[in-house]
Amino acid sequence: MESRYVHKRHNVSVLMYHLVCAAKYRRVVISDDVDAVLRDVCLDIEKRWEIRFLEIGFDGDHAHFLIQSVPTYSPSSVVQRVKSVTAREVFARVPNVKKQLWGGEFWGKGYFVNSVGQHGSEDVIAAYVRRQGEESNYVALHKSQMDLEM
Asked: What's this model's pTM, rounded to 2 decimal places?
């Protein structure tokens, strides 16, 4: 899936986050069954909230999500929704996982989240901001996008 501009009444945005969540105790509990449940639940989350999963990947004891959201949701609120809804549904649909995680929680308390740019790296954006007021600045930053549109 690809990111897209989200048009609201007073803003247009492309906010993307790379989220990494580890299973509680770093236990290897993400089996094929859990993988299927997590992917299905992510589709349900997309239907209920303005959260899109652009990519999802699992590696036994942790998960990676590339998520697009809207400015009304803070990164921490996106993380809270994803972790709470997925955990509840995994325990409900794959009950044997709860036996492996004796604390009653699917995800560990921590997480990693990073903002992801659609078109530029930190260096590109920093250079753009630094060169504000220069006439050639806009053309230089958007040259590749203009080339694609021709």
From this structure: 0.79
Domain with residues 6-118, CATH architecture: 2-Layer Sandwich (3.30)
Q: What is the DSSP letter of 28?
A: -
Domain layout of the chain by residue ranges? 6-118, 120-150
Task: For residue range 80-105, list pLDDT tens digits in order.
Answer: 999 999 999 999 999 999 988 877 89
Task: State how far the Cα of 59 lies from the Cα of 79, in Å rounded to an integer.
Answer: 18
Task: Give 116's contacts (C-beta < 8 A, 6+ positions apart).
Answer: 16, 17, 18, 66
CA distance 48 to 98: 25
Q: Give the tokens for residue 97.
A: 């996982």
**Whole-number pLDDT of residue 116:** 87
| Euclidean distance between CA atoms 117 and 101, whole angstroms | 35
Question: How far apart (Å, rounded) are the C-alpha atoms in residues 108 and 101?
Answer: 10
Distance from chain centroid for Cα 64: 8
* 51, 69 contact by CB (below 8 A): yes
User: Which residues are CB-contacts of 117 (< 8 A; sequence separation ≥ 6)?
Assistant: 16, 124, 125
Q: How far is CA 52 from CA 6, 42, 112, in A?
A: 11, 8, 18
